[in-house]
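Hi all, posting the design record for the shared folder.

TITLE: backbone redesign
STEP: 1 of 1
STRUCTURE INPUT:
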C-alpha cells in the first residue's frame, strides 16, 4: 500500500493540469527598481504573464496533495530503507512552494513581486526534482532483489526522462514557448506512466533484501558501464 501511495503522490507532483475558476489577482504594478537594479520589461512580462497569469491557476493534480500521499508512503517505508528520511525536507518544501507560488499575486506587489515569483518558480522545480530523486532511488533501494533489479533500472531511466523534460518545460514556460513545452509534456506523461508502472510492480519486493544506499547503487551502475 505504501508504494501505491507514493506512486499516486508522484503522479500528482509530476504531472500538472491547470484550470481557472474565475478568481482574479489584483491588478499588478511591477514597474520599478529592486534595490539598485531595474527589472527589464521582458522579465516582468515573462514572470507575471507566463508563470502566474491574471487568474489563479489551480492544478487539478495538486502538488500539495501529492506531497501528503508521498509523505504517508515514505513514513510507512522508512523501516525498510532509512534513507527515505532524506526526502522528507523536500516533501515539505515542495508543498510550501507550490502553495506560495499561486498565492503570491495576493501576498506581494510592486517590482519585488517579480523577484518573489521567480525565486518560488525555480525553487519549486528544484525542490520537486530533489524530492522525487530521493523517493524513487530509495524505493529502488528498498526493492533491490536480484529478480527486480532490471525493472528498477527501467524505472529509474523513466524517471530521469521525466526530470529532463520538466527542466526544459520550466524554461520554455518561462519564456512563453507553450507549444514546444506541450511536446515535452507529452513525452513526460508517457515516461511517468512507464516508470510508475515499474514502481508499482516492485511493491511485492519491499523488504526482501538489504536496502541499497543511493551512493552504492550509483557506484554499481557506474561499474557496469
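Okay, here is what came back for every position:
SEQUENCE:
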Amino acid at each position: 500500500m505504501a508504494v501505491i501511495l507514493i506512486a499516486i503522490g508522484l503522479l500528482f507532483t509530476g504531472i500538472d493540469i491547470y484550470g481557472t475558476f474565475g478568481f482574479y489577482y489584483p491588478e499588478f504594478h511591477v514597474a520599478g527598481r529592486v534595490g539598485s537594479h531595474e527589472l527589464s520589461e521582458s522579465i516582468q512580462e515573462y514572470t507575471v504573464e507566463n508563470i502566474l497569469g491574471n487568474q489563479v491557476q489551480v492544478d487539478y493534480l495538486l502538488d500539495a496533495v501529492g506531497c501528503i500521499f508521498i509523505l504517508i508512503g515514505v513514513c510507512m517505508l522508512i523501516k525498510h530503507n532509512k534513507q527515505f528520511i532524506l526526502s522528507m525536507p523536500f516533501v515539505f518544501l515542495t508543498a510550501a512552494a507550490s502553495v506560495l507560488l499561486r498565492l503570491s499575486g495576493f501576498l506581494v506587489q510592486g517590482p519585488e513581486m517579480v523577484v518573489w515569483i521567480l525565486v518560488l518558480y525555480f525553487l519549486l522545480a528544484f525542490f520537486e526534482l530533489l524530492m522525487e530523486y530521493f523517493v524513487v532511488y530509495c524505493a529502488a533501494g528498498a526493492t533491490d532483489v536480484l529478480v527486480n533489479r532490471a525493472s528498477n533500472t527501467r524505472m529509474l531511466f523513466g524517471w530521469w526522462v521525466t526530470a529532463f523534460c520538466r527542466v526544459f518545460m520550466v524554461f520554455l514556460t518561462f519564456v512563453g514557448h507553450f507549444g514546444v513545452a506541450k511536446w515535452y509534456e507529452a513525452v513526460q506523461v508517457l515516461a511517468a506512466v512507464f516508470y510508475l508502472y515499474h514502481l508499482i510492480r516492485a511493491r511485492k519486493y519491499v523488504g526482501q533484501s538489504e536496502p541499497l544506499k543511493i551512493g552504492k547503487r550509483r557506484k554499481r551502475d557506474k561499474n557496469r558501464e
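COMMENT: Strands lie at 18-24, 33-34, 37-38, 55-59.
Let me know if anyone wants the other runs.
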